[in-house]
């Protein structure tokens, strides 16, 4: 989830907006502006309701951000590296660079978010009680001169405080459901892991509960659709499908980690590498290399030193009429540290990077930059499947 808009940094953590966030913001603003506020504070203009809905929608996501910042602050304090938080259609996600290595670390990070939401619920509820407990404001100060009506500010504040208290309480309860990848699922996994010492079994249990809860949401969504409650039904279906996919992905990621634990790139790489040179004509490289060897990328070398990578996308970026007058060196991407591996590098890290970059193969070089092999996503995944089958 790297697409979107980079906003700002808080306590050293970059805050991003995924494009799907705008859909969620609009839906919340619409439902509050056309549903919640007209029922809570009748008699106002639709413009006032829309403004209140938009402000409240933004406030809800600020609460979600505080929830994620709580996770991140605790994680960073415990030595885990969180540099980014992304807000998206289903809430927010803090990007962990690595999974916790101890059960209690997992527990502390997981519980921080729900505790923050619970604290926010208490704060909003407390402020609401304080405000409603005060004597009514002087109407001479809050009258709207044009209509002689009582200002909307006082009831709007009361209604919004109550809304935010309930939303944060809902965030607390929903996230504490003991199914992966929700916070409650991570807490369950941490406790099971601490008791059994087996993170794989703990993850399997938490993921199974997470998938069961996801199926329950999908079932309720279908019932809502059949009963004519279309909007709620669609939301439940989407959230259920998302949680089911996330629970599956979380367990598979752990399986990959365990399978590849202690495995170096040198054990996965191929030493027989087809290469290109910078001075080759692009049309020749396509005809003799791409069409012959059927890979989507090839390393480019100069005196045995890896200097670049030519991919099918690089070729597509060059007009076909220019292929005969363009060299491989002009079309390729120059190698950077993130586009190569060393034989001693961790195979799991290599797989994660290739999946994140959407690249199928990366060169493997020695300490002097000489090409010694190539590691591919396909080879790593085939080896993992073989290990899982044999184990």
UniProtKB/TrEMBL annotation:
Membrane topology: Multi-pass membrane protein
Family per similarity comment: Belongs to the peptidase M50B family.
InterPro entries assigned: CBS_dom, CBS_dom_sf, Peptidase_M50, UCP006404_Pept_M50_CBS
Cofactor entry: Zn(2+)
GO CC, alphabetical: plasma membrane
Lineage, top ranks: unclassified sequences, metagenomes, ecological metagenomes
GO molecular function, one term: metallopeptidase activity
Protein's UniProt keywords contain Protease: yes
Principal location class: membrane
Protein location: Cell membrane
GO process terms (BP): proteolysis
Gene3D superfamilies according to UniProt: CBS-domain (3.10.580.10)
Claim: Zinc is one of the keywords in the record: yes
Protein name: CBS domain-containing protein
Domain CBS: from-to ranges: 268-326, 332-391
Keywords: CBS domain, Cell membrane, Hydrolase, Membrane, Metal-binding, Metalloprotease, Protease, Repeat, Transmembrane, Transmembrane helix, Zinc
Segments passing through the bilayer: 21-37, 49-66, 109-131, 152-174, 213-243
CDD domains in UniProt: S2P-M50_SpoIVFB_CBS
């Amino acid at each position: 989830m790297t697409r979107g808009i980079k906003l700002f940094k808080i306590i050293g953590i970059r805050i991003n907006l995924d494009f799907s966030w705008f859909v969620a913001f609009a839906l919340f603003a619409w439902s509050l502006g056309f549903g919640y506020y007209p029922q809570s504070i009748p008699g106002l203009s639709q413009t006032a309701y829309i403004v209140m809905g938009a402000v409240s929608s933004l406030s809800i996501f600020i609460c979600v951000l505080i929830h994620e910042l709580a996770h991140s602050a605790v994680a960073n304090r415990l030595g885990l590296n969180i540099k980014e938080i992304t807000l998206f259609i289903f809430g927010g996600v803090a990007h962990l660079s690595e999974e916790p290595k101890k059960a209690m670390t997992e527990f502390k990070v997981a519980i921080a978010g729900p505790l923050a939401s619970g604290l926010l619920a208490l704060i909003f509820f407390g402020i609401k009680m304080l405000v409603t407990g005060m004597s009514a404001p002087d109407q001479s100060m809050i009258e709207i001169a044009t209509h002689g009506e009582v200002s909307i500010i006082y009831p709007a504040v009361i209604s919004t405080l109550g809304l935010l208290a309930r939303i944060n309480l809902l965030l607390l309860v929903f996230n504490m459901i003991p199914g992966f990848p929700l916070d409650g699922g991570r807490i369950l996994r941490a406790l099971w892991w601490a008791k059994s010492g087996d993170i794989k079994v703990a993850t399997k249990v938490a993921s199974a509960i997470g998938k069961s809860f996801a199926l329950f949401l999908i079932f309720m969504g279908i019932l809502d659709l059949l009963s004519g409650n279309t909007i709620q039904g669609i939301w439940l279906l989407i959230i259920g499908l998302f949680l089911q996919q996330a629970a599956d992905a979380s367990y598979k990621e752990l399986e990959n980690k365990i399978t590849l634990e202690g495995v170096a790139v040198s054990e996965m790489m191929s030493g027989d590498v087809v290469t290109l040179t910078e001075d080759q004509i692009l049309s020749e490289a396509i005809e003799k290399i791409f069409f012959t060897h059927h890979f989507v990328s090839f390393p480019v070398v100069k005196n045995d030193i890896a200097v670049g990578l030519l991919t099918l996308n690089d070729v597509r970026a060059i007009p076909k009429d220019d292929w005969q007058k363009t060299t491989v060196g002009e079309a390729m991407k120059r190698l950077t540290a993130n586009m190569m591996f060393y034989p001693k590098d961790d195979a799991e890290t290599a797989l994660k990077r290739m999946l994140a970059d959407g690249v199928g193969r990366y060169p493997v070089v020695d300490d002097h930059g000489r090409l010694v092999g190539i590691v591919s996503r396909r080879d790593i995944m085939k080896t993992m499947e073989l290990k899982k089958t044999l184990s």
